[in-house]
Amino acid sequence: MLRYLNGGESHGKCLLAVLEGVPAGLPLTADMVNQDLGRRQKGYGRGGRMRIEQDRVEFACGVRKGKTLGNPIGLLIANKDWENWKEVMAAEPGPASVEKVVTRPRPGHADLVGAIKYGHRDVRNVLEKASARETAIRVAIGGVAKALLSAFGMRVISYTMEIGTVTAMPPQDPLDAYERAEGSDVRCPDETAGSAMIELIRAAKHKGDTLGGVFEVVVTNPPIGLGSYAQWDRRLSTRLGMAAMSIQAMKGVEIGMGFEAARRFGSEVHDDIYYDHTQREFVRKTNRAGGLEGGITNGQPIVVRVAMKPISTLYSPKQSVDIETKEAFEATVERSDICTVPAAGVVGEAVIAFEIANAMIEKFGGDTLDEMKRNFDAYQDYVKSF
Ligand code: EPS
Fold first, then answer.
1. 345 C-alpha vs ligand 1 centroid, how far in Å?
2. Is the pLDDT of residue 287 over 90?
3. Section 136-164 average pLDDT
4. What is the distance between the alpha carbons of residues 164 and 211, in angstroms, rounded to a whole number?
5. Element holding 158 (H helix, E strand)
6. 3-state class of 327 per DSSP?
């Protein structure tokens, strides 16, 4: 079983995580993970904080000479902004930094409910962990998961499908779409839609507003049989849904045809099954199921689409109430992202990669990568002989 815990405040010293269950002998370098950390920081519509940070992972334990040891892996990402917040965020007892105390909860954030729940009179104690800064360490975890999946010929990719009212043309080939998306400032494979998205973000910025959107994550080349119908929480669809909804600001998730399937006749939804005698495998000409049937992978690419609400921190005011004075005020900020859908896609890849890696470890087990590969190869032979 693969599992992790993470910690870290947005303006604290660092973000960190302990990841357990990665087999020994997996090639792993910081560079492999840093690539994704860099991708997460980009995208048209990012705010001032991204000019401060340059996220890099450090493996504090569990990796030696470029290979995993089979021990828990310690991951650490330093916050550069910490230099400006050392006093305010200090762990040692001391006077509160009065000017940085937050008593004005922002609508749409965890601010008010978090303060009530944990008894904080300073809303900063809530926003520091609720912040999407946390997604950096989750991308690092996802980078390790991707390294494992790549050893089995799998890739986890994403691209932007919608920002606000602008929708991209559905791509024909996910890998080709991904390559094109990587060259786009909004990570959109459709160039025309991408330009319109940038225009819309520009307009939102001008108005002091923010935008959400939809990204699609695809897992290529999964084996048949990950997940199970035998118990509700072992369905891979359950786990992918949970993973997607665990990302800050996500409000909806679809698998394959998703909500559109609810509007069609069954004959228009389900994928026909054929047998390819040359390849000795069951095949489908369509993938409306998004690679999952009965909560189990069917060998088709896994397709997950996720909807993100617009960023809650707005330059244009929203109504709120001060928790101390109980007086109404208009919530505004000095620094905010306008749109982070392009970055959210990279986070989506990470959380999905983690779940697929976990499902691979559950099915093929093994203390070493070699052992896991032997189990995998034997199983693939069995599937061919079925
Ligand atoms: C965030 C607010 C902004 C974002 C931050 C998430 O940070 P700050 O308050 O420091 O300007 O930049 O995102 C990141 C730091 C990041 O790495 O993605 C929030 O409130 O969620």
1. 16
2. yes
3. 98
4. 6
5. strand 155-163
6. coil
Q: Coil, helix or strand for 247?
A: coil
- Residue in 40, 41, 30 with CA at minimum distance from that of residue 74: 30
Tell how strand 328-331 and strand 318-321 pair up: antiparallel
Q: Which atom of ligand 1 is nearest to the CA of 48?
A: 11
Which ligand 1 atom lies nearest to the CA of residue 40?
A: 18
Residue 7 alpha carbon to ligand 1 centre in Å: 15
Residue 108 Cβ inside 6 Å of ligand 1? The answer reads: no
Query: What's the gap in Å between 131 CA and the centre of ligand 1?
Result: 6
Protein residue closest via CA to atom 14 of ligand 1? 133
Q: How far, in Å, from the CA of 14 to the mean position of ligand 1?
A: 14
Q: What percent of the chain has pLDDT over 90?
A: 94
Q: For 247-259, how does the pLDDT look when each residue is reduced to its tens digit (9 = 90+)?
A: 999 999 999 999 9
pLDDT at 351: 98
H helix intervals, 226-274: 236-245
Q: Establish whether residue 321 lines the binding site of ligand 1, counting it when its CB lies within 6 angstroms of any ligand atom.
A: no
Q: Is the pTM of this model over 0.85?
A: yes
Query: For the chain, what are the domain ranges?
Result: 3-385
Helix (H, G, I), strand (E, B) or coil at 296: strand
For 383, the token pair is 């599937």
Question: CB of 337 closer than 6 A to ligand 1?
Answer: yes
Looking at domain 3-385, its CATH architecture is 4-Layer Sandwich (3.60)
Q: Give CA angle at 216 (212, 221), nearest 5°.
A: 165
What's the rounded mean pLDDT across residues 292-297? Answer: 98
**Tokens for 225?**
């049989």
123 CB under 6 A from ligand 1? no
Residue 193 CA to residue 191 CA, distance in Å, equals 6
Ligand 1 pocket: which of 50, 131, 308 to mutate (most atoms within 8 A of CB): 131
Do residues 253 and 245 make contact, with C-beta atoms less than 8 angstroms apart?
yes
Nearest CA to ligand 1 atom 18: 133
**Which of helix, strand or coil describes residue 291?**
coil
